[in-house]
Amino acid sequence: MNRNNLIWLIVIIFDAILVFNIDSTFDGGDSILDYLQAHQALETPHYFLDMWAKPIFILFAFPFAKVGWIGMKVFNMICILGSAYGCKKI
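Structure (tokenized):
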């Protein structure tokens, strides 16, 4: 295993530990509203078009939100790792 892959493995493990062991959102409430809107998107389809509900976010997040809060944490983990990988490629 080369150094680059080892660093990515450490980052992924550290991120997973943080995601699954910390229950806080570190936010004043917007993330809870985003979760609720994504969770209720299939029952309230206008969230897919509502600008306050962030339609692109709802489209990508609602399958994870259906799993529950832990699903949203996994979605955020995927977004963080994807962003980190994109920054590395730049």
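Residues 69-89 form the longest helix (21 residues). The radius of gyration is 15 Å.
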